[in-house]
Amino acid sequence: MGYVRGVNATSSFDGDPTTTGPDGDPTATDPGRIVLLTTSHRVAPGLLSWPAWQALRDADQVLCADGAHPQLPYLREAGITVDEASPSAQELVDACAGGRTLVVVATGEGEPRLTDGLARLAGSGRIQMPDLELLPASYDLPGARLLDLVQVMDRIRLECPWSSQQTHKGLAKYGIEEAYELVEAIEEGDRDELREELGDVLLQVVFHARIAEEDEEAPFSIDDVAGAIVAKLIHRHPHVFGEETATTPEEVKEHWLRTKAEEKQRTSVTEGIPLGQPGLALAAKLASRVRTAGLEVPLPTGEGVGYELLAIAARAEAEGVDPEAALRAAGRAYRDAIRAEEGTAEEGTAELDAED
What we know:
By secondary structure, the chain is an alpha/beta fold. It is built from 14 helices and 7 strands. The radius of gyration is 33 Å and the shape is elongated.
């Protein structure tokens, strides 16, 4: 079936929207159909749904107010004439008279003027409205908004005086701060804060990847970062993407540790443990590696609080308790007690002031 060619935009709005009945009086015609075609800028132009291509092919006329719309070259290549026009709602309704179908390719901002006008006409009840259809021609896939983040970061890196001067080392402290704020949001159970802090952590990833693109010796991009973690996840989940099986969390962890050991080829269980992390977390991680490897390594003995904390952290890890999280929980309880005492003290001061 060939494509229906559109007609000139101006002539389509000058026609008579009615026909003459047997007695010479105007008689309302078939009101026709208006299709508002929307597309996502996050999907490559020309990749439209089959219903969209059908609507475009069968339309009596295709209109678009934006002559630079990214879809236009692909529509024209497919043999579809698109008229650059921005009719009013009434003009569009009139042009549909006689059973004609008009497809409006929406601009990036949508068509608020047109849709509001059509809504007012429909609400007036004074005219017979054409069938109105909103037809999404392309859809965002899950994660599509990440493309927006990459684009925004590109522009900020180029145009912002502060962002354009940042380096990996200069941003390192923000990564630590944002990670701690994320942990706090999780432990506080604040869902809104959690969503925001996840965004802040994600920003650090995208920012560092954007800076890395500019490295002259070993550049890499956000796609390289994503590709590497995808490959790692697939390799370390042979029970999902391969032929191995795992029915319990313990078996999954065993797969993970085995494949990780094969990848890293480490000579010591301590390799890969960052010594700059908080002390309790460091002690618990060391104890975890020793226990997982089946080693019998007694804790070093010595005098002082450090050795006492090391023993406590090792005991907590053996009992399945995160010592850092446990200490933070105790710290929050202490903070609440301090605030309660401060409130009591303030009330007592206020009472004394009132007596004076």
